[in-house]
Amino acid sequence: MLTHKMLVTLAYDWILKRRGGFCGVAFKEFNTRASNGEYPDVLGFRSCGNSVLIEVKSSRADFLCDKRKPFRKNPDFGMGTYRFYMCPWGLIKPADLPQGWGLIWVDHTLKPKIVINPYCKTLTGNIWTDGLVKNFRAENELMYSALRRLHIRGHIEEIYEIK
């Protein structure tokens, strides 16, 4: 049985370690006061300014409940240039997906596999489209909150160190 916590860890590792350095930085279950009320399971950022949201669902009930959230009803309020659901194999069907979302299934060996990628226009997966309209303000609030916490704890100077 894949738990929510296990899937979040898999999504976080996958987004950071995926071929080609998919995202250079990511947050998992980062509790911040974003104005849109969204607490992403995993949100990664690419150097080009695009972001990748992975919403983890370990049960069908959780997935159905997610559809009722304001930032799902109006996708322009949500975070993520690219948005994916990650779930145990077969839990969410491609026909269940909201417009523009991708789908990642995790098998019994704990290996994530992209089942639907509406953003990729090549067989090799290296050229992606522009993605969805996203809530820049909510993403900036998340980044600000992360940097503010480093500053408060006295670690902000570390960003100037080159290793």
C-alpha Rg (nearest Å): 16 Å
The string of secondary-structure elements, in order, is HEEEHHEEEH
If you average the pLDDT, what whole number results?
A: 90
Shape: globular
Low-confidence segments, ≥5 residues, pLDDT <50? Answer: none
Q: Helicity range of the residues?
A: 25-40%
Describe the sheet with the most strands.
6 strands, mixed
Instruction: Report how far apart the termini are.
Output: 40 Å
| Strand order within the widest beta sheet | 1-2-3-4-5-6
Helix/strand class = alpha/beta
Q: How many discrete structural domains?
A: 1
Number-wise, the strands total: 6
Q: What's the number of helices?
A: 4
Percent of residues in beta strands: 15-25%
Question: Can you walk me through this structure?
Answer:
It is a single chain. Helices cover 26% and strands 19% of the residues. With 163 residues, it is an alpha/beta fold. It has one domain. It has a six-stranded mixed β-sheet, covered by helices on one side. The protein starts with a helix and ends in an 11-residue tail after the last helix.
